[in-house]
Amino acid sequence: MGISALVSGRGVAVSPSGFHVPPEEVPHEWTFMQWPVSRKVYADPVFLEMTQQTIADIANTIADFEPVVLMADKSDHARIKRQVSSDVELWDIPTEDLWCRDAGPLFAINGAGKRIASHIQFNGRGEKQAHARDAKIAERVAVRLGVPLVPSDLKGEAGGVEQDGHGLLLAHESSWVNDNRNPGLSREEIEARLLKAYGADRMIWSDGVWGEDITDYHIDSLARFTGPGRVLINLPDEPDVDDPFHQAALQTYDVVVEAGLDVEVIPEPHKRRVRSPEFVASYANYYVCNGGVISAQFGDPETDAIAKEALQRHYLDREVVQLNIDPLGELGGGIHCATQQMPKV
């Protein structure tokens, strides 16, 4: 596939939507998170408790840098308060699972400098799990804040598209051009709607992996923009030719290099606490907040240190904090998946 087929919309100067999603590194007013609670999603109560504690740990760490809103049903608030700091504010918005990057609102800024919610409809990551509550979170947040909810006419998750905040998007086709999310829509139609939803003008596509994990290979567990035209990508030192994720990751690397971006590679951990082949050990799935970068560590001293040093170079003015978030890796995600920023205006 040639690069002309992979990078679209070059030269478009004005957002067709009249708004744009700022880069993650701009100042935030709040970080939004969700409390995992559904027994339809978490059959094992012990693992559910471990996951809840991990979400509390992430919320408490981010709250050292900026205010956090943790959404949960009112009936759960008393127990949650025993696990989170006083800097974490609880909102009575019922949830099922923790993936706020995917179910939460995508905040954008319009031409008048006002916030709007650019809405991509969450459908349980392609109808793969219960989402009766989570499908309504973005709308409920928008109503509570009194901001307009602008539909994108897409089903999907913000974790499935990476953006630099300066007009460029990056995504795997498998997370979008997929009948479990957007049946009947071509890649070109989906691209046009994504560009409008983000107020962007260019898009890079890579193939990804269909049907092998719950996300259909979200891009934010592989590659992240750390500035305009600058990408940090997490690759195995010794790719497995029989692993579809390794092969798709290498293809995405080739695509972003061919597109002329400035790309830095960091390794996946060689050793980790959780040995399951289903475990997602992604250093790229970090979150940028006011003055901080919250990242995972997996118990490999060498690669944990390499990842921390790389993040410190890419975000010179921020403190890099690494956390053990193994339950999220067992679920196929990470810290970025569990958070959603609301930029200041």
Features:
345 residues, alpha/beta, L-arginine/glycine Amidinotransferase, Chain A, 4-stranded mixed sheet, 10 helices, 18 strands, globular, disordered N terminus
Please describe what this structure looks like.
This protein is α/β, with parallel strands linked by helices and 345 residues long. The protein has one domain (3-343): L-arginine/glycine Amidinotransferase, Chain A. The protein is built from 10 helices and 18 strands. It has helices at 3-6, 45-63, 77-81, 100-103, 124-127, 137-145, 187-198, 244-258, 301-314, 326-331; strands spanning 7-8, 19-20, 28-34, 68-72, 88-92, 106-110, 115-121, 149-155, 161-163, 168-172, 202-206, 223-227, 230-235, 262-267, 287-289, 292-296, 319-323, 340-343. The strands form 5 sheets. Strands 1-11-10-9 form a 4-stranded mixed beta sheet, sandwiched between helices. The protein is globular, with a radius of gyration of 19 Å. Residues 1-14 have low confidence and may be disordered.
